[in-house]
Design goal:
Layout: E1 2-5, H1 10-20, E2 26-30, H2 36-46, H3 50-55, E3 57-61, H4 67-73, E4 79-82, H5 94-115, E5 119-123, H6 152-169, E6 174-179, E7 181-183, H7 193-199, E8 204-205, E9 209-214, H8 215-227, E10 234-237, E11 240-243, H9 244-255, E12 262-263, H10 266-283, H11 291-297, H12 306-312, H13 319-335
Parallel strand pairs: 1-2, 1-4, 2-3, 4-5, 5-6, 6-10, 7-9, 8-12
Antiparallel strand pairs: 9-11
Length: 342
């Protein structure tokens, strides 16, 4: 049986969709039962029978930080897809992110070693690569570089990735995927929030560059690596590199909205997050922009996908096609009266 952690998130829900179409039994852990509705919604994007696919999944309430519940979840498991993590750029989430991403991963690695798990796929991030001092396209050989440019999220994922490497050294057949920014539908207040922001009339962009990949490509790569028994390595999973202006312009094009036209220099970004920190403190609200957000948005990172393309002969969906498909689903949900985060 296959175990999936993080199954109620953007990547995990798409992974469960792909796995549910296969003959192997699948178990998914969850903490909030209401989020299973989001998984069903994702299934409905791609299948006329989402309920039938949902019934193929065995759901079990568990928490990565609760060893007892995780021991129950691991009963009878032979393969693990570990996609569970906390992603946040807000200071109040730092401790939880540190605990879940590192301690939760370490615990799952230890359980997998104890249970003799035959296959283990860990979802890391390009944020764990040595981006600070790397010129040109970044590949898997880039080493981590301590820097103020590294977010707390990237630090937590780097430490979690080290736990997986430790597991490999102790005999765990594991592989690591490092997606760039994942594009996909359904989680309009979370991972898919950029589409909502552009639809609402985003007017500004920064000079930053980043890598992007369709969520469907990430799940397909993960399954291929596990099926082909490719372990002991890590792979960047990224379709292409875009400036933020290019990204927002494509989103605006397919959402029928004006493209952002105002460039925000990096020094103004610094002023903005500081002013927002004061405002959020005075009014006890969550800041719209944080220092980590401003820092990330001003950086220029480009990623190479040569290794995974050569290893699997994999062909990525063009980034514009991914953006178009996600925008179409966003507009369809609005037309159906489903509040897509608005």
């Amino acid at each position: 049986m296959i175990l999936v952690s993080g199954g109620t998130g953007l990547l995990g829900s798409h992974l469960l969709y792909d796995l549910s179409k296969r003959d192997q039994p699948v178990r998914a852990i969850y903490r909030n039962p209401g989020r299973k509705d989001l998984v069903r919604r994702v299934f409905s994007y791609y299948s006329p029978e989402p309920d039938e696919l949902m019934r193929k999944i065995e759901w079990i309430a568990a928490d990565l930080l609760d060893s007892g519940s995780m021991e129950d979840a691991m009963e009878g498991i032979s393969e693990v897809y570990h996609a569970g993590a906390v992603v946040s750029f807000y200071p109040e989430d730092h401790r939880k992110m540190w605990m879940v991403n590192i301690k939760g991963t370490a615990g799952l690695v230890n359980l997998s070693l104890d249970r003799g798990i035959r296959k283990f796929c860990y979802v890391s991030s390009v944020a764990t690569l040595g981006r600070a001092d790397t010129a040109g396209e970044i590949n898997e050989d880039a080493h981590w570089s301590p820097s103020r440019k590294n977010s707390v999220y990237s630090q937590s994922k780097f430490a979690a990735e080290r736990e997986v490497w430790r597991g490999m050294a102790e005999g765990l057949p594991a592989v690591i995927v490092q997606p760039s920014v994942i594009l996909g539908p359904g989680f309009w207040e979370e991972n898919s929030g950029l589409f909502r922001l552009v639809y609402k009339g985003l007017r500004y962009y920064t000079r930053g560059i980043n890598g992007y990949v369709d969520v469907r490509d990430v799940t397909r790569v993960m399954i291929r690596l596990m099926e082909d028994n490719i372990f002991g390595d890590r792979f960047i999973v990224s379709s292409g590199n875009l400036t933020y202006q290019q990204l927002f312009t494509l989103m605006a094009k397919y959402l029928g909205k004006p493209a952002p036209a105002k460039h925000v220099p990096s020094f103004l970004s610094g002023i903005a997050w500081r002013a927002e920190a004061v405002r959020s403190y005075l009014f006890r609200t969550k800041p719209v922009i944080t220092r980590e957000m401003a820092t990330t948005a001003s950086q220029e990172y480009a990623y190479s996908n040569d290794r995974i393309r050569e290893k699997l002969g994999f062909v990525f969906l063009p980034t514009e096609e991914s953006i178009r498909d996600t925008c179409e689903l966003f507009l369809t949900e609005l037309g159906q009266g489903i509040p897509a985060g608005l």
